[in-house]
Amino acid sequence: MAIQSRNSSLRNMVKTQYGEQQHMGAAYGPYGQMTQAPQVQTMTIDNVIVRTVALVGATFVAALVTFGLVAEGIQTGDSASLGTASMLSIVGTVISLGVIIFSMFKPVTNPFVAFAYAIGQGFVLGGVSAVFEARFEGIVVNALVATILVFFGMLALYKFRILKNSPVFTKVMVGAGFGIFGLLMVNLVAGLFGVNLGLFAPAGGDPNALQWIIAIGITLWAAFSFILDFDMIEWSANNGAPKKYAWAGAFGLTAGLIFLYWNLLRLLSYFQGE
Question: Per the record's keyword annotation, is Cell membrane included, yes or no (predicted)?
Answer without folding.
Answer: no
